[in-house]
Amino acid sequence: METSERWLSVEEIAGHLGVSKETIHRWLSKSKIPAHRVGKLWKFKTSEVDSWVTEGGAEEPAASADQKPKSKAKKKSTPRKG
Length: 82
Known about the structure:
With 82 residues, the chain is α+β, with helices and mostly antiparallel strands. It has helices at 10-17, 21-29, 46-54, and strands at 7-8, 36-38, 41-45. It is elongated and about 85 Å long. It starts with 6 loop residues before the first strand and ends in a 28-residue tail after the last helix. The chain has a domain at 7-54. Helix 1 packs across helix 2.
């Protein structure tokens, strides 16, 4: 008898990949990660997710040249009187 692959939860697949549950939910909202809806729950097959990762599905798109990273604005210092 063949044993079937176990379904993993969001928490378990996050642990398997070494990412946060928030990352999994972000990928789900963008329909990136292979997942199956079972009622209100998301379930994952390790083999499907591993294939998706090795095919480059988990890579974040590189920022284009015209999209510069946001820098924190520096506070202007006011001269002290004294």
